[in-house]
């Protein structure tokens, strides 16, 4: 079966699909990932096909408008939607082209244009999401808040936000539908149709971290993580190996694909906190270009988390879904510093799992509080012990199995 995975977003929104795609290819399918052009090398190096989508997310987040997206608020999420909507006409054309010849489409949350293409071309499809998006009474929509609004309020807010989030894209969506010979639609009608069709969504999240809500329908399920595939032949830099061997386990610090300004000041803040806690640091530059200097710090570029994290005393990160998952898989405690989007949600999960003493919101971050958290998370055995327990549970899960089962049903079909 020829499968196209439409993966829209940052590095962390694309990398997990390299693992899922590799598993699908091992099972005999032909897999291509449609993603933003800067990710082509990452996808092709892992033996998968690549279909280009427009827009450079890194450039967008680094712009003045992009900086406004790096906030934890509903207004920031509205700006995020408008940032993408500017490119949605070109994205629609590219998605249509990327799915040419496909027998099955797998769509990330922001790859929803693929649902209209699937309808127009008669191609079966499914969602492959990395964040919880279906309305539930068990927690509120992370685009609004992490504080419960009550069961009714949580569901109502999620429905409202989900529908409102589609509004900036309606023109491009209906232009695409017209090209495909489909009638125009509204956001409300779109979601009702998906429910009527029992459109399946597989959530690439560990059920140890987030169990499937009891009020979700059976065709929406949390199945387990899809781990990014490491580039074949990758070897760690000798200077990194030497640094790790030269002293006690350091802490890892990164803001991932976030690109806040004043990274020199941020680097000093992180290093000051770690030094106050008596810890060495591996500082990942990330998209923001974090910097630091000293015998107790090593600045690195992209390095596979599955290799690096097990050698860390703790991880300090922005709370992105992929970095959160990698830290839990490695069995190391965490100090999340969430900026925006789903990051506060995952930070809250880390605290509830008992692997973190608490989240430190990025926009209120200061060295003293971070130093206190680092001392606590690296000296109190409860955090490390709980992290090992969670890692052991995650190790028993295989998030690709349910996806492969669904494909088998389609093939028998």
TrEMBL record:
Metal-binding found in the keyword field: no
Highest rank taxon of the organism: Bacteria
SUPFAM superfamilies: UDP-Glycosyltransferase/glycogen phosphorylase
Stored Gene3D superfamilies: Glycogen Phosphorylase B
Pathway connected to this protein: Antibiotic biosynthesis; vancomycin biosynthesis
Organism whose genome encodes this protein: Pseudonocardia xinjiangensis
InterPro entries: EryCIII-like_C, Glycosyltransferase_28, GlycoTrans_28_N, UDP_glucos_trans
Erythromycin biosynthesis protein CIII-like C-terminal domain sequence ranges: 295-398
Cell cycle keyword on record: no
Keywords for the protein's UniProt record, in alphabetical order: Antibiotic biosynthesis
Protein name from the UniProt record: Glycosyltransferase family 1 protein
Glycosyltransferase family 28 N-terminal domain segment(s): 3-63
């Amino acid at each position: 079966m020829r499968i196209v995975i439409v993966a829209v977003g940052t590095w962390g929104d694309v990398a997990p699909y390299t693992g899922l795609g590799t598993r699908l290819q091992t099972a005999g399918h032909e897999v291509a990932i449609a993603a933003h052009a800067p990710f082509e090398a990452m996808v092709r190096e892992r033996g998968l096909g690549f279909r280009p989508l427009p827009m450079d997310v890194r450039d967008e987040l680094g712009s003045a408008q992009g900086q406004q997206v790096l906030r934890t608020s509903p207004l920031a999420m509205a700006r995020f939607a408008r940032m993408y909507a500017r490119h949605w006409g070109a994205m629609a054309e590219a998605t249509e082209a990327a799915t040419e010849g496909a027998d099955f489409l797998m769509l990330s949350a922001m790859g929803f244009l693929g649902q209209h293409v699937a309808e127009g071309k008669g191609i079966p499809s499914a969602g492959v999401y990395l964040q919880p998006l279906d309305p539930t009474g068990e927690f509120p929509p992370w685009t609004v808040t992490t504080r419960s609004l009550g069961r009714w309020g949580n569901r109502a807010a999620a429905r409202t936000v989900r529908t409102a989030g589609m509004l900036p894209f309606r023109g491009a969506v209906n232009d695409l539908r017209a090209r495909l010979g489909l009638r125009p639609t509204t956001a409300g009608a779109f979601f009702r149709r998906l429910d009527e069709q029992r459109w399946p969504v597989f959530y690439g999240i560990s059920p140890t971290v987030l169990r499937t809500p009891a009020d979700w329908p059976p065709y929406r399920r949390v199945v387990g993580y899809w781990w990014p595939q490491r580039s074949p032949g990758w070897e760690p830099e000798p200077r990194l190996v030497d640094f790790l061997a030269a002293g006690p386990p350091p802490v890892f610090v990164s803001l991932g694909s976030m690109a806040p300004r004043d990274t020199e000041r941020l680097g000093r803040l992180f290093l000051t906190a770690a030094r106050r806690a008596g810890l060495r640091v591996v500082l990942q530059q990330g998209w923001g270009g974090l910097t630091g200097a000293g015998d107790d710090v090593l600045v690195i570029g992209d390095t596979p988390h599955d290799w690096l994290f097990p050698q860390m005393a703790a991880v300090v990160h922005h709370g992105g879904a992929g970095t959160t998952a990698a830290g839990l898989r490695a069995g190391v405690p965490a100090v999340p510093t969430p900026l925006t989007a789903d990051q506060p949600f995952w930070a809250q999960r880390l605290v509830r799992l008992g692997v973190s003493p608490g989240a430190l919101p990025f926009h209120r971050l200061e060295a003293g509080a971070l130093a206190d958290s680092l001392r606590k998370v690296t000296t109190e055995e409860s955090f490390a012990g709980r992290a090992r327990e969670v890692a052991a549970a995650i190790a028993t899960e295989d998030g690709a199995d349910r996806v492969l089962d669904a494909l088998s049903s389609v093939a028998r079909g």
